[in-house]
Design a protein that fits this description.
The complex is a heterodimer of chains A (about 140) and B (about 525).
Chain A lengths: L1 H24 L5 E6 L2 E8 L4 E8 L9 E9 L4 E8 L11 E7 L8 E7 L2 E8 L5 E4 L2
Parallel strand pairs in A: 5-7
Antiparallel strand pairs in A: 1-2, 2-3, 3-6, 4-5, 7-8, 8-9
Chain B lengths: L1 H23 L2 E2 L1 H9 L6 E7 L13 H25 L6 E7 L4 E6 L1 H8 L4 E6 L30 H5 L2 H7 L9 E6 L13 E6 L4 E2 L8 H10 L15 E6 L4 H12 L13 E4 L10 H13 L2 E5 L19 E7 L14 E3 L2 E3 L4 E4 L3 E5 L3 E5 L2 H18 L5 H11 L26 H11 L16 H11 L30
Parallel strand pairs in B: 1-5, 6-9, 6-10, 7-9, 10-11, 11-12, 12-15
Antiparallel strand pairs in B: 2-4, 2-5, 3-4, 7-8, 13-14, 16-17
Helix pairs in contact in B: 2-4, 7-10, 8-9, 10-12, 11-12, 11-13
Classes of the chains: A alpha+beta (about 140), B alpha/beta (about 525).
Chain lengths: ~140, ~525
């Protein structure tokens, strides 16, 4: 009875690991989405060119919705942190929608192949971006 | 009692006297006054000078489009010459560098030192001087387009979209398929247009990038312009049903880059080939933008008055600042503007749509004028795609497209006629959006929901002989009487001038110089 209970626990543990692993790294093609206020972040890791492509969309609707502009992009090596500053540009249009901005970043040598960076937008840490050898990419909340 | 009367008379005289003094001196904003007082000859400021609009005996007939353009050019050139002569004669005049002028609103840009500004302020023909700020930050890396939940990639489909069904285009097509805006040119003052979109190909007659000040092949700096243009003239009535007047042609300017470019775009639309002898301007212009934050709405009021005087019907979005009352955005309060509120698929006004009334020259005016579909409207976006967008931006082009239909039916309609037909043809609704039998202005819907089918019938009725061979009949109710009553209830200028009579006594000056650039 004790042995069968132990076997059940081991099997359950392996099953749980399998599910977590599938969620984490079996994400091909290399795209992932994480949702957290105030931005929804979509990411792509272009392994061939070693580019990280991010699209940030405001969760809240805006009554005069134009694209946001990336006015500053800073990378800190230790810990690996990408800081973006997003601002609205001149926008007189009467369109309701979600404002968004995109950024394409050519990765530094130390992050090529695989890595993990913290994403900060307008001074607020949004989460971590984890990318792997097969072009996989994961966005997590802190 | 006698003494009180004397005091009152004296006060009135004093007020009149001080008013006449105030009129003689141009209004200069405080920052510029400080700049002039600083006396530092190393400093230079960029300013915009608004000339006084002088009355003239050679004033053209209203809606004599070529005469209007010639007159506006002549007046601005004369004002410019007078200013040059003045500067040549006064101390400090050599410290003013004039840098072109905008004839559409009778203004000029200039670089001045403090002494130069003092010389400028002494000129006899200046109304106002503004500081002309510039964008100081660097543009970062940004691309891509706003995502949409309602993305579709198809142009085809047999069903009429709700936006066209709601305004009666399906009925119009069933009865009069040839009424599709053919022969009419509409204007777009927006972010540009993708001229290669399958639904717009071959429809763009001319394109002007107002930011770069050049004529080019059409393109869109965003997605907004392609979407609004698609709603006006896009597609067809067979497999790609999304434009109100797919037979109409388009002239477009990518002007929504800064306020200076916007005025350049407005000027270009009034005379696209820069030859006043040709009446090549569009008969109606769609405007899905606002100018809140501009140094002074008078700059835009004058341009709108000029458009209307030349015979251009001016359609604007009402604004997305609802649902509170009195949230109509600038310059949509101008009496010549047809300000359009946005309704959804259920026919009810959207939450975001700005509510009236509006304030113009210190008085309440009835805006919005009418409502039209503006929620999840599917139209063209760059790259040959279709996308649903929301906003009063999407409502205004439905009215613009309808104006094209009216002008096809009756090319002689003036902007004032068109306004009457659009408002009279609208489906009357109450404040809650329920259908009613009589037009009553509402702060949410204006005179009601746009009904292109009814409006075209009325325009056909006005053009008595034009549709003699068709089965259209004149609307049963007294068109002229009702429309006159409505227009008189909707205060407007009996303009015999181009903005001269629009004073700004109650205008609040807004400090937003950092986005006023590239005049």
């Amino acid at each position: 009875m004790k042995q069968s209970a132990l076997n059940f626990c081991v099997l359950a543990f392996i099953a749980a690991l399998t599910v977590i692993g599938a969620n984490t790294w079996a994400q091909t093609p290399s795209q992932s989405t994480a949702s957290q206020n105030p931005y929804e972040v979509e990411g792509t890791y272009d392994q061939a060119n070693q580019d990280l492509i991010l699209k940030l969309t405001e969760v809240v609707e805006n009554m005069n919705a134009c694209d946001l502009v990336v006015t500053s992009q800073t990378y800190v090596n230790n810990p690996h942190k990408l800081s973006l500053k997003l601002e609205s540009d001149f926008c007189p249009i009467d369109k309701v929608g979600h404002r968004s901005a995109s950024v394409k970043w050519h990765l530094p040598m130390s992050l090529r192949g695989s890595g993990e960076i913290i994403l900060e937008v307008n001074g607020e840490v949004l989460g971590r971006i984890v990318f792997g050898q097969h072009g996989s990419l994961l966005l997590t909340h802190l | 009692m006698k003494s009180q009367l004397s005091k009152a008379i004296l006060s009135a005289v004093a007020v009149c006297f001080s008013f006449s003094i105030a009129q003689a001196v141009p209004a200069i904003e405080n920052d510029l006054v400080r700049f002039a007082k600083s006396g530092n000859s190393d400093k230079v400021a960029q300013v915009v000078v608004l000339f006084e609009n002088e009355r003239s005996s050679s004033f053209p007939e209203r809606y004599d489009s070529r005469g209007v353009v010639r007159f506006l050019r002549w007046r601005a050139e004369r004002a410019f010459d007078r200013l040059e002569k003045h500067l040549a004669q006064v101390e400090g005049g050599d410290q003013v560098r004039l840098d072109g002028f905008r004839w559409i609103n009778n203004s000029v840009a200039a670089m001045v030192s403090p002494a130069g500004l003092k010389a400028l302020a002494k000129a006899p023909n200046i109304d106002r001087i503004y500081l002309n700020g510039r964008i100081t930050y660097m543009r970062g890396q940004s691309w891509g387009h706003p995502s949409s939940t309602y993305l579709t990639n198809t142009l085809s489909g047999n069903d009429w979209p709700y936006s066209l069904r709601d305004i009666g285009i399906d009925k119009l097509h069933a009865e009069q398929p040839s009424i599709n805006g053919s022969g009419v040119v509409v204007g777009s003052m927006d972010t540009g247009v993708d001229g290669n979109h399958p639904g717009l190909k071959g429809k763009v007659l001319a394109f002007y990038d107002a930011g770069k000040d050049k004529l080019t092949d059409p393109y869109d700096l965003d997605t907004h312009g392609t979407h609004t243009c698609g709603t006006m003239v896009g597609g067809d009535r067979a497999n790609a049903k999304f434009g109100v007047a797919p037979g109409a042609k388009l002239v477009s300017t990518a002007a929504l880059q800064n306020y200076g470019a916007m005025l350049k775009g407005m000027e270009w639309l009034l005379d696209p080939d820069k030859n006043p002898s040709t009446a090549d301007f569009p008969r109606v212009v769609s405007n899905s933008w606002r100018s809140d934050g501009a140094p002074d709405q008078e700059l835009f009021y004058r341009a709108i008055s000029a458009w209307e005087a030349a015979g251009i019907t001016v359609v604007f979005s009402a604004g997305n600042a609802g649902p509170r009352d009195e949230t109509i955005t600038h310059p949509h309060e101008h009496p010549y503007v047809i300000a359009v509120a946005a309704t959804g698929e259920d026919g009810k006004v959207t939450k975001f749509s700005s509510r009236g009334p509006a304030i113009f020259q210190g008085k309440k005016v009835q805006k919005p004028d009418v409502s039209a579909p503006g929620d999840k409207v599917v139209s063209s976006v760059p790259g040959g795609k279709m996308e649903a967008m929301s906003g009063t931006s999407m409502a205004a082009p439905h009215v613009t497209g309808t104006v094209a239909l009216l002008l096809q039916v009756n090319p002689k309609l003036t902007p004032a006629d068109i306004r009457k037909v659009i408002l009279t043809g609208a489906q009357p609704v109450d404040e809650a959006g329920n259908t009613i039998g009589q037009h009553v202005w509402s702060k949410t819907y204006g005179m009601g929901r746009l009904n292109a089918f009814e409006a075209v019938k009325m325009a056909a009725g006005v053009a008595k002989n034009f549709y003699a061979a068709t089965h259209f009949v004149r609307s049963a109710f007294a068109f002229t009487e009702l429309s006159e009553q409505m227009v008189s209830a909707n205060p407007r200028m009996e303009a015999d001038d181009f903005g001269k009579e629009i004073n700004l006594e109650n205008t609040k000056w807004v400090q937003a110089w950092d986005i006023w650039s590239d005049y």
